[in-house]
Write a structure and sequence with these properties.
Length: 145
């Protein structure tokens, strides 16, 4: 009986050891082009959010197409402080256009009055590197209303 337990224990140890060694390789996979574009879109959305919160018009312009910037800057309203949270929910890639759907919520302070809003926006991004071309649905940068 004792030998049977010892044999089971040794087999279990061999299985565990082989699993550990087989999963520990240094093989890495390169991300696909779509995954790379999605990551770039997430970074761009975060860059735009940070620039907006800091009222940095030059950073907004730098990360937008000419028409995208024109529409974006026309929608921006004055605020003393803004705090936005972006949660990417969907990425659609067609040819050279990336549509990034973002669930957003924000708090804006204007003359000591605080306003909270939330919504869903689609950032249409184009080019290499990606730049904001259009915002569809509820524009987080057109708040507070």
């Amino acid at each position: 009986m004792r030998k049977a337990h010892l044999m089971k224990y040794l087999i279990l140890c061999l299985v565990v050891a082989s699993l550990c060694f087989s999963c520990g390789g240094k093989e890495t996979r390169k991300s696909s082009e779509d995954a790379r574009l999605a990551e770039e879109a997430f970074r761009l959305a975060d860059t735009l959010k940070n620039a907006y919160e800091k009222n940095d018009a030059s950073a907004l312009e730098e990360n937008s197409t000419k028409d995208g910037y024109r529409v974006l800057i026309a929608a921006v309203k004055k605020f003393d402080r803004a705090d936005l949270t972006f949660t990417p929910t969907w990425v659609d890639i067609k040819d050279s256009t990336v549509s990034l759907t973002i669930s957003w919520k924000g708090t804006w302070t204007v003359r000591d009055k605080s306003t909270e809003e939330r919504g869903l926006a689609v950032f249409v991004l184009e080019g290499h590197p990606l730049k904001l071309a259009l915002i569809q649905r509820e524009n987080p940068f057109s708040q507070p209303e």
